[in-house]
Amino acid sequence: MSEKAKSNIEIGEQREKSLLLLVRLKKYFNKIKDANFDENIQELKNLAVSAGAYVEDIIVHNQEELNPKYYISVGKLEEIKGIVAQKDISLVIIDEEISPTQQRNLQEKLNVKIIDRTALILDIFAQRAHSREGKLQVELAQLNYLLPRLRGKGIELSRLGGGIGTRGPGETKLETDRRTIRNRISQLEKKINQIGIQRETQRKRREETNIGQVALVGYTNSGKSTLLNTLTDSNVEARNMLFSTLDSTVRKLKTEQGYELLLSDTVGFIERLPHQLIASFKSTLEEVKKSDLLLIVVDLSNPNYESHIESVRSVLKEIEIQPKPAVIVFNKIDKVTSDSILKARFKYRDAVFVSAFKKEGLDTLIDKIKDELQGNYITITVKIPYSENKLISQVYDNCQVLKKKYLEDSVLLTINADINFYPRLSNYIYRGALSNY
Ligand SMILES: Nc1nc2c(ncn2[C@@H]2O[C@H](COP(=O)(O)OP(=O)(O)OP(=O)(O)O)[C@@H](O)[C@H]2O)c(=O)[nH]1
Ligand SMILES: [Mg+2]
After folding, report:
1. pTM, whole model, 2 decimals?
2. Mean pLDDT, rounded, for 144-158
3. Do 50 and 158 fall into the same domain?
């Protein structure tokens, strides 16, 4: 077994020729689902291309029900066999997670590599992982995907009965493989936990500063990184590719009026995000958990944006983000008609509309963020003696100073203080007259 998270799809000058296979079950046929289905095809295509494959053919198979042995019907299988041979295809990508048995049977019949949706997404993550934490997280998800598949092989071998080269040595090898994988999994979990502890320390330090923390979340490719770059004048990688961001980044946003907050960007979500990945990326997603406000970035130019919002909400639920204030930010308004904006505005009344690209609507967005966070602040006037210089500098670091006056032995400050910071100031509340202040 290889030690590192590896990509299954080779990219080079020669992209692997692939065939995409999507099954549409009769019972799900209806107008709405069909409209979504076209987008589903497009998404699978984007995933395949993002993984580095060349899409040679796309087959949509309408079926009464799934075939437990081959996933598709035997008739369709024969047809695909013909296409694979004729077009020299070396990879078949399936839009769902299929069972280990189906995968093996298909592989035997078609004699090409079979990759399901989960493996495909894991593959993209493996290619994108740059940081140490990202690499460990992806490897963990890959091994968790692999483990039950090895188990499947075990069943197959036992069914073959005794005989040289099958049960005895085969199973022993399998047992060793399984043990190696399990050991590696617990090793990875430990390492990821350790990194998680370091993160926690950094986060605590940030929390002590009491600056509002805002997290960008949303479907992959919706423009989170572009928005972070535009708002904070940063240079996080933003590309027209699925899952271009895997690691979390935190940047300070400072408005012209001196208002400050911390903005974080993180991995994007997708419909049917593999559960192995969600489990592995829990510590990365802590950033989201600890934030005061979520900005759910939505690509308004994607016809499926409503189901994207649903997917994002369901992932947030899965990672146990308690209900926390969230604002929907419709992005890429430069790519849509004013009718589409009106329609969305009508349905999502509290949403904000921006173009990260064209820098439109950003002031409204910042005002909205301030409004949402302001709930956590109170405006007070405090009188702190100079002898408490440590506290004075904490006030400057943590609060927005609206007004100040230096007196003989103390300083008078009118500030916006976070309610969490307020207890430290309660002894210094100024109750005197403010007339000549
Ligand atoms: N037309 C237009 N394109 C945009 C806008 N914002 C982002 N994009 C493009 O959308 C693509 C994806 O942008 P990213 O910022 O990488 O998206 P992301 O949400 O960070 O994506 P992941 O990290 O993959 O989850 C890039 O090609 C951007 O240039 C916008 O307001 N208008
Ligand atoms: Mg990104």
Report:
1. 0.79
2. 64
3. no
